[in-house]
């Protein structure tokens, strides 16, 4: 199997188009056309992880955090990033980063976080904006099913828990072809008036070229009439953070104790107790201080995230319990999820969970 075949599975798990604009995801180092020898999945592709990959004969390292984040102008090995990159290149090891592509996925980092805590009825906390487009096209009734199915197969028509969603309305289409035309109905220079169906479907914008290809190769007409609209709707299934509920509410102390145990957190910093029972909980794995207000607005009783500064604890405003459980800890089960996903999709192949602890933060 080639490295690039494994990358396709990773893209299926977390489309790179889901990543935030500031991010640096995908294949960061190496040749995707190389034959794959094994996959090592880790949180951070540090030098010790590259060593582990060499020992375990894995030439693809899948990391959650991109080891290469900002541009490098010199690669001399003067810091931990450059040393890891040099070692990977010298040993023909590819590095692939997932990061916000998986953060934004409905089954990704925050769903894994919610599942670890036992939260139910989960919803995306910050639904992604400017991500949905709408295609409108027109065809003869005999061609509707073919066009619609091709659009669905290309990924159009998914709304929440429903697929194959479309709206179809009857109408009259008109046209007249010039001397170069070859009309499906009627002749050149003949004014044609015919029954047509207008098909409307929505799609995630990164699928546009695939969807247009499906439209053009399945539409009955020589010249396909279509329109694409940019929608203002948020995408309910893609976005950062998640909110869910416990079956049984608990008090704040009990809640924090359970979080500490389930997330294997060594220390939790938290805001003043509100005195409320904890039922609804918002989570955002990694640095999530920007979402405190969203968690309050969503009616969360508690918000779990990481990298909070002193003043940000005041932003809880006694409306929820705000807790910093540690950056690594809040994302700790992500690598296990990636391993499980790859093992399910790629059978009889070495997919290994890294044994290196890459958390740079220690607790006394
Ligand atoms: Zn992170």
UniProtKB/TrEMBL annotation:
InterPro entries xref list: DUF34/NIF3, DUF34/NIF3_bac, DUF34/NIF3_sf, N-reg_PII/ATP_PRibTrfase_C
The keyword Transcription appears for this protein: no
Keywords: Metal-binding
GO cellular component, one term: cytoplasm
Entry binding sites for a divalent metal cation: 65, 103, 327, 331
Keyword Metal-binding listed: yes
GO molecular function, one term: metal ion binding
NCBIfam families with a match to the protein in the record: YbgI_SA1388
Family: Belongs to the GTP cyclohydrolase I type 2/NIF3 family.
PANTHER family found in the cross-reference section: GTP CYCLOHYDROLASE 1 TYPE 2 HOMOLOG, NGG1 INTERACTING FACTOR 3
Subunit structure: Homohexamer.
Descriptive protein name: GTP cyclohydrolase 1 type 2 homolog
Organism of this sequence: Flavobacterium frigoris
């Amino acid at each position: 199997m080639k490295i690039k075949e494994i990358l396709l599975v990773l893209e299926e798990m977390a489309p790179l188009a889901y990543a935030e604009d500031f991010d640096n995801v995908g294949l960061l180092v190496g040749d995707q056309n190389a034959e794959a020898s094994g996959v090592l999945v880790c949180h951070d592709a540090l030098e010790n992880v590259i060593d582990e990959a060499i020992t375990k004969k894995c030439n693809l390292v899948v990391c959650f955090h991109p080891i290469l984040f900002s541009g490098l102008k010199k690669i001399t090995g003067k810091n931990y990033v450059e040393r890891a990159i040099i070692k990977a290149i010298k040993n023909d090891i590819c590095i692939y980063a997932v990061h916000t592509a998986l953060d934004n996925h409905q089954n990704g980092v925050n769903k894994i976080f919610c599942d670890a805590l036992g939260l139910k009825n989960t919803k995306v906390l910050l639904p992604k904006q400017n991500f949905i487009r709408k295609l409108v096209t027109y065809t003869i009734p005999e061609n509707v099913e073919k066009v619609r199915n091709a659009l669905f197969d290309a990924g159009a028509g998914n709304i929440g828990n429903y697929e194959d969603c479309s709206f179809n309305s009857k109408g009259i289409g008109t046209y007249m072809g010039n001397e170069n035309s070859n009309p499906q109905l009627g002749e050149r220079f003949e004014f044609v008036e015919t029954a047509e169906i207008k098909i409307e479907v929505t799609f995630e914008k990164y699928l546009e070229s695939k969807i247009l290809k499906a439209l053009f190769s399945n539409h009955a007409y020589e010249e396909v009439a279509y329109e694409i609209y940019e929608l203002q709707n948020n995408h309910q299934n893609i976005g950062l953070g998640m909110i869910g509920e416990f079956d049984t509410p608990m008090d704040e102390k009990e809640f924090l104790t359970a979080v500490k145990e389930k997330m294997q957190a060594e220390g939790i910093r938290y805001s003043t107790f509100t005195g409320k029972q904890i039922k609804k909980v918002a989570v955002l794995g990694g640095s999530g201080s920007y979402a405190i207000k969203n968690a309050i607005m969503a009616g969360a009783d508690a918000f779990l995230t990481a990298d909070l500064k002193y003043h940000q604890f005041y932003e809880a405003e006694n409306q929820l319990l705000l807790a910093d459980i540690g950056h690594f800890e809040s994302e700790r089960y992500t690598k296990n999820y990636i391993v499980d996903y790859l093992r399910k999709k790629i059978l009889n192949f070495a997919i290994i969970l890294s044994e290196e602890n890459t958390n740079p933060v220690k607790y006394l």
